[in-house]
Design the sequence.
């Protein structure tokens, strides 16, 4: 059975980029009786060991585990930013054992400044390999994350290629349902037609057998069940792929529903679909 997590950054609409998001996520996870939360590096006050250990104590005291920490990537900057990303990834990998976390999430990079897709893809592959090499020494997992916003990898074919071309025991893959090409928010802005294109579902179906984790995006642009992404269809694909890993719910509001109301609704809806 799939365990359910909620992404702490989902509380950004209320708390901004602060560790209040982490505490709110852990409190809600405990109230909802779900397994865990996932966090982002930008939410941590510092990497100081006593701070991280105290934060871990507070989260674990609620009976909640942290699955991974994401690494922020500046998608609008050229690949020259990658050296800084690698340095930050190493610092995060060194810090996370104090928090009891064994995995980081790393997206690709934006295809910008006239750089070609192939040039950027090659730079991303090298970045992920370098981070994986460091993580393997530390016994950590690196989740490759498909992420569009004009970035790569952002299609099923690109994801499979990079997974096949990187050689590391640290490498895993987190499938983001809302960040393939074809998503109504795949360019970082709402589409004029908020219905996902067929290519998004093609990529999900292609990549589901390789996923160790899923990030399930919810937008709730209108009241009721999620409309922008077809979750009955997505869950059917995950079941066909025999996906049994954790599913992390990420709320990116496109309407006026606050995270404190949206996340419980998303948990109930997704759990219902998984149980059918």
Sequence:
């Amino acid at each position: 059975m799939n365990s359910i997590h909620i992404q702490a950054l989902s509380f950004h609409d209320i708390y901004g980029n602060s560790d209040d998001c982490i505490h709110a996520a852990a409190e809600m996870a405990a109230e909802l009786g779900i397994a865990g939360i996932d966090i982002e590096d930008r939410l941590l006050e510092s990497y100081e060991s006593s701070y991280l250990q105290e934060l871990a104590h507070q989260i674990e005291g609620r009976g909640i585990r942290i699955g991974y920490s994401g690494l922020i990537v500046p998608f609008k900057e050229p690949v020259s930013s990658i050296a800084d990303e690698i340095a930050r990834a190493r610092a995060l990998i060194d810090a996370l054992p104090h928090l009891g976390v064994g995995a980081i999430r790393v997206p690709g990079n934006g295809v910008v400044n006239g750089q070609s897709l192939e040039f950027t893809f090659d730079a991303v592959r090298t970045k992920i390999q370098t981070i994986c090499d460091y993580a393997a020494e530390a016994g950590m997992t690196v989740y490759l994350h498909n992420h569009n916003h004009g970035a790569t990898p952002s299609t099923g074919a690109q994801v499979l290629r990079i997974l096949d071309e990187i050689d590391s025991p640290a490498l895993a893959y987190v499938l983001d349902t809302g960040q393939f090409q074809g998503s109504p928010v795949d360019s970082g802005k709402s589409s004029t037609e908020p219905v996902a294109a067929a290519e998004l579902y093609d990529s999900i179906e292609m990549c589901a057998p390789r996923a160790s984790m899923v990030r399930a995006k919810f937008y709730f642009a209108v009241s009721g069940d999620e409309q922008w992404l077809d979750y009955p269809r997505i869950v059917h694909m995950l079941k066909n792929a025999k996906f049994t890993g954790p599913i992390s719910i990420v709320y990116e509001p496109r309407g006026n529903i606050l995270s404190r109301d949206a996340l419980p609704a998303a948990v109930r809806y997704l759990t219902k679909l998984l149980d059918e």
